[in-house]
Amino acid sequence: MSHDQEAVKRSLELHILPNREEMGKAAAREVSSAMKGIIQEKGEVKMAFAAAPSQNEFLAHLSKTKDINWAKVICFHLDDYVELPRFHPNTFETYLKEHLFDQVRPQAVYFLKALKGEGEQVARQYAALLRQCGGLDIACLGIGENGHIAFNEPGSKIDDSEMVRLITIDARSVRQQFRDYKDHPNPQARYPSLAAVPRRAITLTIPAILSAKEIYAIVSGPRKADAVRKMWEGPVSSACPSSSLRLHPCVRIYLDRDSAAKLRKVPRSDHPLRSRAHSLVRARRPRTRPPQKPIGGLRQLGPTTPSSPRSSTPEVAQEPAGPAREIAPGLPGGI
Asked: What is each CA distance from 293 to 23, 50, 137, 248, 290, in whole angstroms?
């Protein structure tokens, strides 16, 4: 094999758990294991997190996991609103501080709201931070009711040339954000009306998310069932941005029974990965492929429809990690 080719195993896993609590616990267990392995190999791990109620149980279990050296963890987040001021209770920065960062104290966290300038200027600065840090090892995300990942709404470019963009939030996402906060324990976080929900956000693009070496998606609730079915069983298309996850060589998706309810292809009850969870796994044999194209040059890997469950447990392989890189001193936006 030539130096510009590599042998890879592709793994796309779907885990269906009985409820949100078990879903969050399972995802946290696997993410923490991946974090420890990358820290051992590279000396640090660079991660991006989503901010949404669907992440509550996952982040709670992750923050309580022992033996993670958070001093070796560098964190980004996937998106945030433009209109809301910093420290508003509905910013995604505030959510992640409350649910994770204030408990675990990572080496550094880079917040969108910490950067100065207008929306497009902030997007360019955040993209520069990602590049200077050497890219992501792990991305943890959810899937929206309309199939979005981060704030990549339907119609977003799968082969976007940018890493971070200023976007207009889809009308269905606006309604979802309103519902997500209508019963918030902090009255100041409850939007008084749909008109009060922000309409613009800054988001990592689909190629930026897919550039992470490993991706973990945590998706719960009956309102996500249609999006989950389209993500897993439909065509890979910008009409359902989360379908692009099937282009990535190492993805694990965690569902509860409600979000999995509309899947037509479900695991057999005797599948070997089933204990308290059902697991459906697709894996490819090792093969050679040319080096991964840069942002804006994504290509599809393998089939786009799930196969039937296998009778043996496939090995999940990670792409070889690159050399460790250090954050350049003086980067803005960190804590």
From this structure: 33, 25, 17, 12, 8
